[in-house]
């Protein structure tokens, strides 16, 4: 029943208000009953949001066009899966998904936060409640998905055909789990600022949450990139589009947060910086939501003509970002700073990582916002595209990637760079070999290609070196080494996997950009085309009818060495009549880690068809690397020990470091 | 009503989530520093467990233990000890306000935003409604669904085409007229309608294609007023105003006194004498210009449409007769349409399908009687 969902949403808003105010008041006055209100209210609020979301999804599944939102974004002929995913394939529904995840995380804190100090728990839930209340109010006043129409139109306007894809089922939920996951880190930070102290349990909670959020965000971005790659039919995997940047900025800041949270958890240092990063990361998530949802990206002027939503989000940004930063400015000096450490140490390496990542974030932020600011002030529309980011973001990333393998090998508190460099000799040799092989045998013309491949191998071998060194490779007997390897903490595997995945992604990007080939041609039935050693024969165009579209499917046979067909690739041009939109379904054949990508163009009057062909070497590694990074994060999450990073005194025995004088 | 009950239960549940903790027992809050100590103790005990299971080297365990000990020493014991929760007046006020806020805010907001009386209307429910209760859009949609399944039903296209024209869905009207002509052959009304649809789809310009259709209509019925009117309009648009005027004058001479076209012709004549009709000026026939009628269907059209649908149901039952619901719907439809003979016929056929002594036959007879119909004369 639709109205039940609507009422549940309103009720959830009322509860979120209570959750924002009562526990906060209780924590201020030391009233434990009021502090206890936060938990049950968060759980019931989540249950009501689930009810509300489920109602909307049911309305979508049953094509209830008396709900205006369903009418605008659905059609009775769509397959059921796209009817359901259409729930969040639009502004209103996606905002409901946003608060659903927000209340879910709030409920998790309420349920599993029993071991938190009562005031911290109350304050965290209050901040979560405040975020929730604002978003509920935003949904109810400017983007209500439950507005009804009577009489109901008989047929809907269809979901945007580009969104009628499995990618919609996976990408937005993952991305939002990432965005919103950082809200927990944010709430913990603001709660710490409100209290004026950082508890020991604060540090234990923030790292896993940052990990969870980062894991989902990584998956969301990788999935979004692959979706754009195969659905848009241009064969590109990243466009430096503002919408993409909007998700990439929290990822960069979140990566920095993840690393500084490690320092904080293990060494009790960098507390204030971590707190600031947590605030900034979630602020960037909010900013991303604002950029994508307010319509400011399509045009500043479109934003100005219908400003209700935009102005609401803008005030929300001001409230949360401005408010939390002001609180930080007021309270940060009262927080106790953490321990001291030597610049050459694991902590130092992580700070270096943070410096690079935050600078990179700022670069992307400028590249994304500058055109908007310019358009708002002068009215000129410029686009800051790939050249800007290649010139700024690229040079920032390369040195960071170069130092990545050093970090995990450095000891806490004070490390020995020389000893680490010696251990990395094998990885360096492998990277050098990769450079030489690339330059001599594959592509001697481009220094960038050779060095890029070398960098990727450096990262991959560096991650393996980390595992080898920590399991005692070469210094102990193989069976002892194996048992040590198995006994290594999961977080060590997590680190190695994540850095390994980073190397794979780098290899995929370099391979695709440097060794990819492309061909545009007009082809007739029976003709063959050859690209990078792959031969294709055009078998013809076959019309067919889908549930809510008609298509011309072009069939191509992939020919083996003897000229016989080994497999088939099909690419189609689809027409969705309701919206009068055509889409191109690209044909992709994965061969090893590489892909042959085929996109059907227009048909000429003489029966020939325009076809774009790409050979994309190692392209799957780009997203495969993302999956490996996710696996690394998951592995690290499974390390449930209460992690304490003690400065190692074993180095004393080797004589590489003068005896550390411990406080 | 059901909704109000559900809403009340939900409100109650939500209010209890606020009320119960407020009414519950009060734990004396521990000093924040004590909590940190607890965390460090947990860490120490877990470290011991790990060391005992050999998950961590003894030397590393020793170092970690020293690190935890250092943190315990650093513990800020001056953490603000929470005050005991005395039942202050402010606290009571806040608690009361919080409990009241839930029903007040939710019902207040909902009464502004919601439509509590509007039931869900999933597609399946809307399609199952009686055609007589349906809106024009629904009727059109059903006819479209019927024609999508039976694209060679010429009569269906013939009924739908003028409806499209009136709904200003001109390109659909063009396709529907073409289908009707293809399947059921030429007729003056179809050809003239096709011409009107083509002209309106082109924003009112009487193109060569539209002229062909009007010419075909005049060949079948030389006195067809719609075709004559639009052809003259086409002449006027080409700048041949005197010829157009002559054609309209001739129409006035032949049209019967009560023809609805007289007004349109007189208006066109008045405008062509006032000023030269600019090329591309929208052609205005009496029904196309009748904007009010554009969205609503005339009673005749509505009737015709329902009749096609009932005929479709009849046909379906001839092919799949064992459908008790369908027979009752058919009988009721014929009664609603005032066709008692056909209703009786349908009733007889339905009873014959299931056998005169069957459960269904008794149900049919009782149902027909409730509509004031008897099985036999």
Automatic annotation (TrEMBL), chain A:
Query: Record keywords: Nucleotide-binding included?
Result: no
Signal peptide per UniProt = none
Organism's domain of life? Bacteria
**What sequence ranges are listed for the domain Cytochrome c-type biogenesis protein CcmF C-terminal?**
314-640
Keyword annotations: Cell inner membrane, Cell membrane, Cytochrome c-type biogenesis, Lyase, Membrane, Transmembrane, Transmembrane helix
State whether keyword Nucleus applies: no
Q: Which InterPro entries match?
A: CcmF_C, Cyt_c_assembly, Cyt_c_biogenesis, Cyt_c_biogenesis_CcmF
Q: What are the annotated GO cellular component locations?
A: plasma membrane
Q: Its family?
A: Belongs to the CcmF/CycK/Ccl1/NrfE/CcsA family.
What is the official name of this protein in its record? Heme lyase, CcmF subunit
Origin organism of this chain? Answer: Mesorhizobium metallidurans STM 2683
UniProtKB/TrEMBL annotation, chain B:
Q: Which InterPro entries match?
A: C-type_cytochrome_biogenesis (IPR051263), Cyt_c_biogenesis_CcmI (IPR017560), TPR-like_helical_dom_sf (IPR011990), TPR_CcmH_CycH (IPR056413), TPR_rpt (IPR019734)
Q: Which UniProt keywords apply?
A: Cytochrome c-type biogenesis, Repeat, TPR repeat
Query: Taxonomically, what lineage is the organism?
Result: Bacteria, Pseudomonadati, Pseudomonadota, Alphaproteobacteria, Hyphomicrobiales
Gene Ontology biological process terms, A to Z: cytochrome complex assembly
Describe the location of the Cytochrome c-type biogenesis protein H TPR domain by residue ranges: 144-260
Annotated organism of origin: Mesorhizobium metallidurans STM 2683
Compartments (UniProt record)? Cell envelope
Q: Name one Pfam family in it.
A: TPR_CcmH_CycH
Q: Which GO terms describe its cellular component?
A: cell envelope; plasma membrane
Keyword Repeat annotated: yes
Please report the residue spans annotated as repeat (TPR).
154-187
Chief subcellular location equals other
Q: Where is this region: Disordered?
A: 272-295
Q: Give the source's domain of life in one word.
A: Bacteria
Name of protein: Cytochrome c-type biogenesis protein cycH
């Amino acid at each position: 029943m639709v109205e039940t969902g609507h009422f549940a949403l309103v009720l959830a808003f009322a509860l979120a208000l209570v959750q924002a105010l009562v526990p906060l008041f209780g924590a201020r006055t030391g009233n434990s009953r009021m502090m206890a209100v936060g938990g049950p209210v968060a759980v019931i609020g989540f249950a009501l949001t689930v009810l509300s979301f489920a109602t909307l999804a049911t309305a979508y599944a049953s094509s209830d066009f008396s709900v205006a939102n369903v009418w605008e974004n659905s059609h009775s002929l769509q397959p059921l899966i796209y009817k359901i995913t259409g729930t969040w394939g639009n502004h209103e529904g996606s905002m409901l998904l946003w608060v659903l995840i927000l209340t879910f995380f709030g409920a998790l804190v309420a349920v599993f936060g029993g071991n938190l100090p009562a005031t911290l728990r109350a304050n965290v839930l209050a901040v979560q409640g405040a975020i929730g209340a604002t978003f509920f109010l935003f949904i109810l006043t400017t983007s209500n998905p439950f507005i009804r129409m009577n009489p109901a139109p008989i047929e809907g306007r269809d979901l945007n055909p580009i969104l009628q894809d499995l990618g919609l089922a996976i990408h937005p939920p993952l991305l939002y789990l990432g965005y919103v996951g950082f809200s927990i880190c944010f709430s913990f930070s603001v709660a710490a600022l409100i209290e004026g102290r950082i508890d020991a349990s604060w540090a234990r909670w923030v790292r896993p949450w940052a990990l969870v959020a980062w894991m989902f965000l990584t998956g969301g971005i990788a999935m979004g990139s692959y979706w754009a790659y195969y659905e848009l039919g241009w064969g590109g995997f990243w466009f430096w589009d503002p919408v993409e940047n909007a998700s990439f900025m929290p990822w960069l800041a979140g990566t920095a947060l993840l690393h500084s949270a490690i320092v904080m958890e293990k060494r009790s240092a960098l507390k204030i910086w971590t707190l600031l990063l947590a605030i900034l990361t979630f602020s960037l998530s909010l900013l991303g939501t604002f950029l994508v949802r307010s319509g400011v990206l399509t045009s500043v002027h479109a934003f100005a003509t219908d400003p209700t939503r935009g102005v609401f989000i803008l005030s929300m940004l001001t409230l949360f970002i401005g408010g939390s930063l002001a609180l930080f400015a007021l309270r940060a000096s009262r927080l106790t700073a953490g321990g001291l450490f030597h610049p050459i140490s694991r902590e130092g390496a992580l700070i270096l990582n943070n410096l690079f990542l935050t600078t990179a974030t700022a670069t992307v932020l400028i590249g994304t916002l500058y055109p908007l600011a310019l358009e708002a002030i002068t009215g000129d529309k410029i686009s800051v595209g790939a050249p800007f980011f290649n010139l700024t973001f690229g040079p920032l990333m390369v040195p960071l990637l170069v130092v990545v393998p050093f970090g995990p090998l450095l000891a806490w508190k004070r490390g020995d760079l020389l000893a680490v460099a010696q251990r990395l000799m094998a990885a360096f040799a492998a990277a050098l070999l990769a450079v030489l092989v690339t330059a001599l045998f594959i592509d001697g013309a481009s220094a960038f290609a050779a060095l890029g491949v070398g960098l990727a191998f450096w990262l991959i071998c560096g991650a393996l070196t980390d595992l080898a060194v920590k399991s005692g490779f070469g210094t102990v007997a193989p069976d002892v080494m194996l048992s040590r390897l198995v006994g290594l903490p999961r977080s060590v595997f997590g680190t190695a996997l994540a850095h390994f995945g980073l190397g794979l992604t780098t290899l995929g990007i370099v391979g695709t950009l440097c060794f990819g080939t492309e061909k545009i041609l007009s082809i007739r039935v029976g003709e063959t085309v050859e690209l990078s050693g792959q031969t294709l024969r055009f078998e013809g165009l076959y019309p067919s009818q889908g549930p809510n579209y008609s298509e011309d499917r072009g069939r191509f046979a992939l020919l083996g060495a003897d000229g016989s067909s080994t497999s088939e690739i099909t690419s189609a041009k689809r027409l969705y009549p309701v919206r009068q939109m055509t889409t191109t379904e690209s044909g992709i054949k994965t061969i090893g880690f590489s892909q042959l990508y085929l996109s059907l163009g227009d048909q000429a009057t003489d029966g020939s068809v325009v076809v774009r062909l790409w050979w994309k070497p190692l392209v799957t590694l780009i997203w495969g690397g993302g999956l490996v990074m996710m696996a690394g994060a998951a592995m690290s999450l499974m390390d449930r020990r209460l992690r304490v990073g003690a400065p190692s005194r074993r180095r004393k025995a080797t004589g590489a470091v003068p005896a550390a004088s411990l406080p | 009503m059901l909704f109000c009950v559900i809403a009340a239960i939900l409100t109650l549940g939500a209010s209890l989530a606020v009320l119960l903790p407020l009414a519950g027992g009060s734990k004396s809050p521990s000093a924040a520093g004590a909590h940190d100590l607890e965390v460090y103790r947990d860490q120490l005990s877990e470290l011991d467990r790990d060391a005992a299971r050999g998950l961590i080297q003894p030397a590393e365990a020793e170092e970690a233990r020293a690190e935890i000990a250092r943190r315990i020493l650093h513990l800020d014991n001056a953490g603000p000890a929470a005050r005991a929760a005395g039942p202050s007046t402010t606290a009571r006020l806040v608690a009361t306000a919080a409990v009241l806020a839930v029903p007040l805010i939710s019902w207040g907001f909902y009464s502004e935003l919601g439509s509590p009386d509007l039931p869900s209307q999933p597609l399946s429910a809307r399609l199952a409604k009686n055609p007589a209760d349906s809106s024009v859009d629904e009727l059109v949609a059903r006819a479209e669904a019927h024609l999508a399944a039976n694209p060679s039903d010429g009569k269906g296209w013939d009924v739908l085409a003028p409806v499209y024209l009136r709904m200003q869905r001109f390109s659909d009207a063009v396709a529907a007229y073409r289908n009707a002509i293809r399947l059921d052959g030429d007729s003056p009304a179809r050809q003239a309608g096709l011409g009107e649809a083509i002209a309106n789809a082109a924003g009112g310009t009487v193109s060569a294609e539209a002229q062909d259709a009007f010419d075909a209509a005049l060949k079948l019925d030389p006195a067809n007023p719609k075709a004559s009117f639009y052809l003259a309009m086409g002449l006027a648009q080409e700048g041949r105003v005197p010829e157009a005027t002559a054609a309209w004058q001739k129409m006035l001479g032949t049209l019967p006194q009560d023809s609805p076209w007289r007004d349109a012709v007189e208006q066109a004549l008045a405008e062509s004498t006032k000023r030269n009709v600019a090329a591309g000026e929208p052609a205005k026939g009496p029904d196309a210009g009748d904007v009010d009628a554009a969205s609503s269907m005339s009673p005749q059209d509505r009737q015709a449409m329902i009749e096609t649908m009932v005929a479709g149901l009849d046909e379906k039952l001839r092919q799949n007769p064992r459908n008790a619901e369908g027979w009752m719907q058919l009988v009721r439809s014929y009664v609603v349409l005032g066709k008692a003979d056909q209703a009786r016929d349908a009733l007889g056929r339905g009873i014959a399908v299931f056998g005169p002594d069957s459960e269904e036959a008794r149900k049919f007879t009782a149902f027909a009687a409730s509509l004031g119909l008897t099985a036999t004369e």
